[in-house]
Design goal:
Layout: E1 7-12, E2 16-24, E3 30-39, H1 50-62, E4 74-79, E5 84-91, H2 99-110, E6 118-127, E7 133-141, H3 142-154, E8 158-164, H4 165-177, E9 183-189, E10 194-200, E11 203-209, H5 214-224, H6 228-238, H7 253-283, E12 289-295, H8 304-312, E13 316-318, E14 326-327, H9 333-337, H10 344-351, H11 366-376, H12 378-449, H13 451-468, E15 494-502, E16 517-519, E17 525-526, E18 569-580, H14 589-603, E19 614-615, E20 628-642
Helix pairs in contact: 1-3, 4-10, 5-6, 5-7, 7-8, 13-14
Length: 643
């Protein structure tokens, strides 16, 4: 058994490859280091192309675990259930020395292929009260096993074990749940087949049922004339098991059809389960089941548990194969819980490297088993090689004496090299300084190229403010109109009281109040300065063009040196506005004006990003007698400016 390093456990299902990386922990249990699973789609069913599809999927899986690529290269493998033949047989009480011969005879009678064409194994699980031996017989075709080995070798992995799904599930259940009172069933619903296991007082019985979730996908795809991949996606996203009876059907016709087909497939599976239960109680001497655990990808369909609870009249729960497995702290437990019950076979494979298991089967060919035995004896061969090396070391002593003489000569040569090494260091330092100078010069080039952006931004802001004088949608009431009861358009006035810049949306960079920019009733900008408390609505002279800001100017136009550490970035402009109080037109006129102005800024997508251009603070609440009110807006620049 492996004790000191991690190893991989891989379940090659009909449509899914599941991989987990384990390592023994300090308590004698297992620690899950990494895991993942990946669907192969309908290509996994194609026998001719399956090997290539599995190999490609495995390579992708090994490179994208939930914690990154897998590290181990030693693997335990579980062959898919639809490729494995298994059967429980009873042997009469006989001389222990003849048991192997009788089992050989039973294998010839029960395995549906010539024994030379298969790899087979058996496990004696116990005996009946009458003394008969209960034997689990499994077999898999040679070509399937050889295909698994080719896949492992091409993926750079070393295979140590080939198990079967029913045995792996049995070991995983016993490791996590032990022996419960009464008879407990475990149903693993796969894509092409399902495994039904019975556990009772240390005994185990299993049967493979050729019904899986792929029947739901295939029947639905045939019914609606849809591709298999599309049908599978709809089944996963919208499907559920219809509960039957007086339940209202979903309005979605696809969802309603999937639910009916799912119930039909689950009903067929339930019929097979009932037949197996009757056989188990009648022929195997078992008792009625008292609980059912669900596992496998198809058990994720909503209402699957309720369906079987209603049909079997027993409590139903989901199987947790990681119940007694330590989970690495870096693994997200919530994400793992969504797929945990699909890893029963994988955990069962991992336990095989930990301790003696209730069911221990290995379908590795004899040639590979001999290779493993040889590898286990490699230490003895290594010891022999070391003895030879020790002999050679004696000869090495002589060569060491000669090396000392050469070392003395080497010291003299190194003394002559030291001045050259110093010159090399000076040259390296000069190259570093040259590179730093080039980097700094490039920064200045970038800063100069960004200068026109300021003029473009300020011109754009000025244009939006000019347009805001009328583009706000506020109308006067009928009484304030033209005298004939017709409302007139409101002419607003707004100006910038303060302008700050920042690299992020949280806080401004150092700046001071900017020169005010006022927009009068006629829409023309007015030069800034001291803003009067109650600006008159009369038309004002046009504002002189604003000079573009250079990268090393602050918002007041003052020079500020470029930091030695490199240019900083401006991503946001924080504007504090003052505007004429419009409450005399309506109580909500101020807010309507601000929201319209904000919309105008957001619409300037060539300058600003909509999601980052928002009202910063709440609008000042002022009385009707106040002439002005204030508010702030944050503008997120579409292109960051460096300064």
């Amino acid at each position: 058994m492996l004790k000191s390093k991690s190893f991989l456990c891989i379940d090659f299902g009909a449509t899914t490859v599941k991989v987990a990386e384990f390592e023994p922990n300090e308590t004698g249990s297992l620690r899950l280091k990494n895991y993942t699973l990946k669907s192969m789609g309908q290509a996994g069913f194609a026998e001719g192309d399956r090997e290539a599809v599995v190999l490609q999927t495995l390579k992708e899986v090994l490179a994208e675990g939930v914690r990154g690529p897998f590290e181990a290269d030693v693997i335990n493998v579980c062959a898919p259930g639809f490729q494995v033949f298994s059967k429980f047989v009873k042997l009469p009480a006989t001389d222990p020395g003849k048991v192997s011969q009788i089992i050989q005879y039973e294998a010839q009678q029960n395995v549906p292929f010539p024994l030379e064409e298969v790899v087979w194994d058996y496990q004696i699980l116990g005996s009946t009260p009458t003394g008969e031996l209960e034997v689990l017989l499994v077999a898999i075709k040679n070509e399937v096993v050889e295909s698994l080995f080719r896949i492992g070798e091409q993926a750079g992995l070393e295979m140590h074990l080939v198990d079967v799904s029913s045995a792996a599930l049995c070991n995983a259940y016993r490791f996590n749940y032990g022996d419960a009172e009464g008879c407990v069933m475990l149903l693993d619903i796969g894509a092409r087949s399902s495994n039904l296991l019975f556990f009772e007082q240390g005994r185990v019985y299993s049967r493979s049922i050729n019904i899986g979730a792929n029947s739901i996908t295939q029947d639905f795809a045939n019914e609606v004339k849809m591709k298999w991949e599309e049908a599978e996606k709809l089944k996963i996203e919208e499907g559920f098991v219809s509960l039957g009876g007086a339940y209202e059907e979903p309005s979605n016709p696809h969802q309603a059809l999937i639910s009916k087909i799912a119930r039909q497939v689950m009903t067929r599976l339930h019929i097979q389960m009932n037949q197996t239960i009757q056989f188990y109680r009648g022929q195997q001497g078992g008792s009625a089941p008292t609980k059912l655990y669900l596992a496998g990808g198809a058990s994720l369909l909503p209402y699957t548990a309720q369906f079987f609870a209603e049909k079997l009249n027993v409590p139903v729960d989901y199987f947790n194969p990681f119940r007694n497995i330590q989970i690495d702290p870096e693994i997200n437990l919530e994400e793992m819980a969504k797929v945990a019950h699909q890893f029963g076979e994988v955990v069962g494979l991992g336990i095989r490297n930990l301790a003696q298991c209730p069911v221990e089967l290995n379908l590795m060919p004899a040639s590979h088993l001999k290779q493993q035995q040889f590898n286990a004896k490699r230490l003895y061969f290594i010891g022999s090689v070391l003895c030879v090396l020790i002999t050679l070391l004696a000869f090495g002593w002589f060569f060491g004496w000669m090396a000392n003489r050469k070392q003395t000569e080497l010291v003299e040569i190194q003394k002559s090299i030291e001045p050259l090494e110093k010159n090399s260091m000076v040259l390296q330092q000069a190259n570093q300084e040259l590179g730093a100078a080039k980097n700094l010069s490039q920064q200045y080039v970038d800063l100069v190229s960004a200068r026109p952006r300021w003029a473009e931004l300020l011109t754009g802001i000025q244009g939006i403010l000019v347009a805001a004088s009328t583009n706000h949608g506020i109308k006067t009431t009928a009484g304030d109109g033209d005298g004939a009861g017709n409302p007139n358009e409101v002419i607003a006035a707004v100006w910038i009281e303060k302008m700050d810049v920042s690299s992020g949306g949280g806080g401004p960079a150092p700046a001071s109040p900017g020169t005010g920019m006022l927009v009068g009733d006629d829409g023309a900008p007015v030069p800034g300065g001291a803003i009067p408390a109650a600006p008159a609505p009369a038309p004002m002279a046009p504002m002189a063009p604003m000079a573009p800001m250079t990268p090393n100017m602050n918002m007041l136009g003052g020079e500020q040196p470029v930091a030695a550490a490199g240019p900083k970035e401006i991503g946001f402009i924080n504007l504090t506005f003052k505007a004429l109080n419009l409450k005399r037109y309506s109580p909500s006129a101020n807010r309507e004006f601000v929201e319209a102005l904000q919309t105008n800024f957001q619409s300037a997508t060539n300058l600003f990003l909509r999601e980052g251009t928002t009202l910063t603070n709440r609008i000042d609440e002022v009385e009707l007698t106040n002439h002005t009110f204030g508010f702030s807006v944050t503008l997120q620049l579409k292109d960051v400016i460096r300064f």
